[in-house]
Amino acid sequence: MGFLIAVAMGAEPGSAAALMAAQEAQQRSDDRQIGQLLEALLRGPFQKSAPGWMLTAAVAEGLHRDESDYLARTSVELAALALGQ
């Protein structure tokens, strides 16, 4: 998953790399690091425009995680990032 996160962070909007990372994010919705991938996509190639499924997944992931103060803070930030789209 670390590779996908790196690809997403460096991808240009509409590029094959951005689309590949987004497709993987959609297919790996149960992965523990999905929040990091969604955040990389929303801060990178999908910053100006993101598909509905990505926003929904980011909000759900952000609201779902509350295991520690650190995760809760970053998860709320992920939900806020998606809602800001």
- What would the average pLDDT be, to the nearest integer? 83
Shape, principal axes of CA atoms: globular
* Number of helical elements: 5
- Taken as a percent bin, the fraction of beta residues is under 5%
Per DSSP E runs of 2 or more residues, the count of β-strands stands at: 0
Order of helices and strands: HHHHH
**How large is the radius of gyration?**
12 Å
Please outline the major beta sheet.
none
Q: What fraction, in percent, of the residue positions are helical?
A: 55-70%
Straight-line distance between termini:
24 Å
| Unreliably modeled segments | 67-72
Structural class from helices and strands? mainly alpha
Feature tags:
globular, 5 helices, mainly alpha, 85 residues
Q: Can you describe this structure in just a few lines?
A:
This protein is 69% helix and 0% strand.
Describe what this molecule looks like in 3D:
Mean pLDDT is 83; it is low at 67-72. The protein is globular. With 85 residues, it is mostly helical. It contains 5 helices and no strands.
